[in-house]
């Protein structure tokens, strides 16, 4: 039966992503209508595109599987940044190979708006730091309702600063049809069903493999929810929206560490396997720092960029995360067996 749940998880991951895209559509229309830049539009659109994380945490909290939701939150934020940059770079290379322009006219490397680092990546790092303060210190370790309230306020501030600093983009006329309304409602349904299957399937597979709920969330749900990001990033970057395609990952996971915290905080999810959580949080913080440093090294005029070497370094950080987390789990298993 385990393989059936694996197939179900893959289908559920794509169902939740499809549902999120339908929810993001009206928010994209708002961005176009009021002329927000690509960097500022990311946090706005993330209200829809990051909704799978909220859905998973709602289901996790409601079914008593809060540790699965916490593990999914932490794990997905580590793996998504290097995956997004790698897929975005591949899409850029594909565009370059099929373009009639000369390489010199296209520029070197994957280019993103310079403002994206200030509007998206660095505020995201600040939100990660806030989340660490809420759950890691011994005096108040875990998530309580007050933590959820603080996290929601942090997202309101983050969204506000992004929209304020990202004004001045090109405005356009927006139309909305009855079909689009039906698609949005269908997206809500797909999101609800997909989230339930993701949490339930993770519990079933984790139980069959003898994994703790937190570990199941880190290595099963997190990778499943990151899978659709590959296709989304590819299509957005291929369409020429490079900055939105790359930096949306920060907006998505800023919402993960703020609005998505609320369901888990309401049911007061404790932090178990503390050494594992501490290790993962270190890499959660490392990824945006590495993103900012590597992109800054390729500064040119009003943009930053990535070359293949930078993509490889981010991939190396992902491998280091997997090895370090596995080593901590192995050590804890050995210590408990003595």
TrEMBL record:
Keyword Membrane appears in the UniProt entry: yes
Locations listed in the record: Membrane
Segments passing through the bilayer: 73-92, 116-136, 181-199, 211-237, 249-268, 274-294, 306-333
Stored PANTHER family: INNER MEMBRANE PROTEIN YRBG, SODIUM/POTASSIUM/CALCIUM EXCHANGER
Organism: Kocuria gwangalliensis
Name of this chain's protein: Sodium/calcium exchanger membrane region domain-containing protein
Keyword annotations: Membrane, Transmembrane, Transmembrane helix
InterPro entries: K/Na/Ca-exchanger (IPR004481), NaCa_Exmemb (IPR004837), NCX_ion-bd_dom_sf (IPR044880)
Its membrane topology: Multi-pass membrane protein
Every Sodium/calcium exchanger membrane region domain range: 7-160, 181-318
Domain of life, per lineage: Bacteria
Keyword Membrane: yes
């Amino acid at each position: 039966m385990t393989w059936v749940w694996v197939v179900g998880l893959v289908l559920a991951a794509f169902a939740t992503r499809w549902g999120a895209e339908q929810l993001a559509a009206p928010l994209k229309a708002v961005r176009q209508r009021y002329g927000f830049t690509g960097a500022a539009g990311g946090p706005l659109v993330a209200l829809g595109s990051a909704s799978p994380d909220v859905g998973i945490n709602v289901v996790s909290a409601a079914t008593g599987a809060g540790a699965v939701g916490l593990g999914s939150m932490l794990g997905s934020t580590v793996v998504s940044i290097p995956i997004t940059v790698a897929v975005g770079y591949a899409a850029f290379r594909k565009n370059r190979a099929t373009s009639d322009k000369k390489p010199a006219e296209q520029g070197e490397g994957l280019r993103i708006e310079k403002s994206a680092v200030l509007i998206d990546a660095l505020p995201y790092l600040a939100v990660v730091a806030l989340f660490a303060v809420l759950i890691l210190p011994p005096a108040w370790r875990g998530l309580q309702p007050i933590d959820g309230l603080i996290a929601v306020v942090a997202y309101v501030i983050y969204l506000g600063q992004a929209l304020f600093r990202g004004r001045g983009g090109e405005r356009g006329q927006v139309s909305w049809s009855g079909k689009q309304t039906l698609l949005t409602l269908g997206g809500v349904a797909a999101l609800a069903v997909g989230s339930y299957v993701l949490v339930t399937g993770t519990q079933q597979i984790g139980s069959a493999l003898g994994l703790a709920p937190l570990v199941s969330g880190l290595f099963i749900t997190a990778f499943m929810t990151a899978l659709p990001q590959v296709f989304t990033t590819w299509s957005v970057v291929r369409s020429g929206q490079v900055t939105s395609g790359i930096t949306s990952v920060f907006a998505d996971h800023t919402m993960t560490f703020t609005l998505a915290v609320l369901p888990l905080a309401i049911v007061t999810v404790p932090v178990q396997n503390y050494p594992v959580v501490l290790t993962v949080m270190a890499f959660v913080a490392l990824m945006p720092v590495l993103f900012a440093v590597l992109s800054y090294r390729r500064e040119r005029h009003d943009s930053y960029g990535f070359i293949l070497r930078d993509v490889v370094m981010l991939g190396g950080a992902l491998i280091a995360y997997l090895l370090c987390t596995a080593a901590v789990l192995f050590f804890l298993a050995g210590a408990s067996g003595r």
